[in-house]
């Protein structure tokens, strides 16, 4: 139960200006996946300057987690707040169209009543909100019966090693939340702060990544490509793969309809995406490619065997009479929290205190991503996600200052409900 006097003392220390300055500070340097070190150091130094005695917890010295604690005087449950350090890749890291006249969305900036930038929305705006909430609780001298753990992790953005793209540059969960869970004090519950439109959810999709290789015919110099070819006999592997791409789109809809999973903590709609294609050499376009490789992001639901998808993909090749192979290179199951009720109830109380309304369950897209509460739930630490909305109209990379402030207040009130007795 939240004590009103204590709440007033804490919430009075959370101001919009302080929150804006903190959010801009920790988003002032880019932190792309595989290169989070500089961004992590900014967070570490802020915690150190504020007297939190943080620790660097890293599998690699330049891709480390940050851990700090607001200690307790009792032996109550420990509540972790978690957000990720890495933000979306730089344009030079992947193929993307971008108008060079548009502003850079890889760092944060202030514009009117908005904070703009990819890292503000995903995920350092919510991070700033709970960092300031923790500081307010500490500075108000609140006696905690259970500790607060403050955790910032790399490797949340879903890059994965494949083919020649190997090594620490491409690792994700292994260097981030999963490493953190095994090398810091074990939390009793975890609130993963991500954008949810002030909704809560404690279920998330898993990921099964597949590579389908379609084989073409003999290599021909362009003057020897003699059309027409009978169906399925074109020497060009890209041309042979075209019917498969169309069939995959049909299968994707069938797949998500078969596997949609509804639960009290949210509904997972497991989407499918043909996310990358590799074939030929752009600097040698005078011959047809012998192979065309398709890379698929296939989402799964809790309890689903992601490896069994291989048989369905193989069947599609056979159905179309294509010579090829199917390889799975990622299997990260999805999870649903068990024993989440104390944290869910605390979110309910805090949200009602702030908004005078009941909190709603997260939408299917929010429950069909991969967020790090999957890692905590896999480890048996009941975890959910809750955070402010993003704003369309400035890219999609903006959050209202008022929303971020209200999120900070809800995080503080949740911690008081869970940890202050």
Q: What would CATH call the class of the largest domain?
A: Alpha Beta
Question: What's the helical proportion of residues?
Answer: 25-40%
Overall body shape: elongated
- Per CATH, the architecture of the largest domain is 3-Layer(aba) Sandwich
Number of DSSP helices? 11
Largest sheet: 8 strands, mixed
The ordered string of helix (H) and strand (E) elements is HHHEEEEEHEHEEEEHEEEEHEEHEHHEEH
Helix and strand content put the structural class at alpha+beta
Quaternary structure: single chain
Average pLDDT figure: 93
In the CATH hierarchy, what is the superfamily of the largest domain?
A: Zn peptidases
CATH topology of the largest domain: Aminopeptidase
Please write out the topology:
Blueprint: H1 4-11, H2 16-26, H3 37-49, E1 55-60, E2 63-70, E3 79-84, E4 109-111, E5 114-116, H4 118-139, E6 148-153, H5 177-183, E7 189-192, E8 199-201, E9 203-204, E10 206-215, H6 237-259, E11 261-263, E12 266-268, E13 272-279, E14 291-300, H7 309-320, E15 324-332, E16 335-336, H8 341-355, E17 360-361, H9 364-367, H10 373-378, E18 383-386, E19 398-400, H11 401-419
Parallel strand pairs: 3-6, 3-7, 7-18, 8-17
Antiparallel strand pairs: 1-2, 2-6, 4-5, 5-19, 8-18, 9-16, 10-14, 10-15, 11-12, 13-14
Helix pairs in contact: 1-11, 2-4, 4-11, 6-7, 8-11
């Amino acid at each position: 139960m939240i004590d009103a006097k204590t709440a007033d003392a804490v919430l009075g220390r959370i101001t919009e200006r302080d929150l804006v300055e903190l959010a801009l500070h920790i988003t002032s340097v880019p932190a792309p996946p595989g290169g989070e070190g500089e961004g992590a150091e900014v967070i570490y130094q802020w915690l150190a300057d504020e007297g939190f005695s943080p620790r660097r917890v890293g599998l690699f010295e330049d891709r480390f987690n940050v851990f700090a604690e607001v200690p307790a005087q009792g032996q109550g449950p420990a509540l972790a707040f978690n957000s990720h350090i890495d933000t979306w890749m730089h344009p030079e890291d992947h193929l993307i169209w971008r108008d060079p006249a548009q502003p850079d969305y890889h760092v944060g900036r202030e514009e009117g009543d908005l904070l703009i930038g990819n890292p503000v929305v995903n995920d350092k705006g919510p991070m700033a909100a709970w960092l300031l909430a923790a500081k307010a609780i500490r500075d108000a001298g609140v006696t905690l019966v259970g500790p607060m753990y403050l955790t910032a992790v790399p490797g949340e953005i879903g890059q994965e090693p494949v083919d020649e793209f190997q090594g620490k540059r491409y690792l994700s969960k292994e260097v981030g939340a999963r490493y953190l869970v095994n090398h810091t004090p074990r939390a009793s519950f975890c609130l993963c702060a991500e954008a949810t439109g002030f909704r809560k959810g404690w279920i998330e999709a898993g990921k099964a990544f597949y590579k389908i290789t379609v084989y073409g015919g003999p290599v021909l110099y362009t003057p020897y490509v003699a059309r027409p070819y009978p169906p399925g006999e074109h020497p060009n592997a890209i041309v042979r793969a075209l019917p498969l791409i169309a069939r995959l789109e049909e299968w994707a809809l069938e797949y998500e309809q078969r596997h949609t999973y509804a639960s009290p903590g949210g509904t997972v709609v497991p989407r499918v995406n043909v996310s990358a294609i590799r074939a030929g050499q752009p600097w040698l376009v005078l011959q047809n490619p012998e192979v065309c490789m398709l890379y698929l992001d296939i989402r799964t639901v809790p309890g689903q065997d992601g490896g069994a998808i291989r048989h369905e993909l193989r069947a599609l090749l056979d159905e179309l009479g294509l010579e090829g192979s199917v390889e799975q290179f990622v299997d990260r199951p999805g999870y649903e929290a068990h024993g989440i009720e104390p944290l869910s109830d605390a979110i309910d109380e805090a949200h009602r205190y702030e908004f005078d309304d009941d909190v709603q369950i997260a939408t299917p897209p929010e429950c069909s991503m991969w967020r790090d509460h999957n890692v905590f739930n896999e480890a048996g630490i009941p975890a959910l996600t809750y955070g402010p909305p993003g704003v369309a109209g400035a890219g999609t990379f903006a959050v209202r200052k008022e929303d971020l402030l209200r999120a900070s207040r809800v995080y503080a009130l949740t911690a008081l409900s869970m940890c202050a007795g």
